Amino acid sequence: MSNFLNEKIDTPKRDGLIVDNFPPADVFSVTLRAVDKAVNLERGTVLALSTGTAGDKKMVVLGTEAATNETLEANCILCDDTEVGTADVIGLAYRTGHFARNQLIAVESYELTKTDEEALRKGGILLSDAMNY
User: Measured between alpha carbons, how far is 8 from 28 in angstroms, rounded to an integer?
Assistant: First the structure.
């Protein structure tokens, strides 16, 4: 008979995205806006909420160019790799938590600003400089 209490089931993979357990990482569902060409968004992608008179309350990758009368503000961080295509997709994102700044992803040419960090902080997302190990 096997001693199931001592069996190794799996080894968790550490990607260094989450720095600390406080504040707790709270997950919620988000609607990711459709794109022209299918793309795989990676875990750790910072999402911006579309608001304003032309806003649709959907999420896009931070650094995406805003349409006329649309405001895009940093809002949350994608939990899992998610494929987004020509139709809107429901995904999971962290609305709160403590994350490593150097693990966050935005549009390739975009650099996270202090305004972005403040918007995330107001929502309950803390960022720290963390070393990978």
Answer: 31
* Domain 17-119 bears CATH identifier 2.40.300.10: yes
Q: pLDDT tens for the chain, 133 residues: list them.
A: 556 666 766 665 678 899 999 999 999 999 999 999 999 999 999 999 999 998 899 999 999 999 999 999 999 999 999 999 999 999 999 999 999 999 999 999 999 999 999 999 999 999 999 766 5
In whole angstroms, give the CA distance from residue 8 to residue 80.
25
pTM for this predicted structure: 0.88
Burial of 41 (0-12, 13-18, 19+ CB in 10 A): buried
User: What are the residue boundaries of the structural domains of the chain, listed by start?
Assistant: 17-119
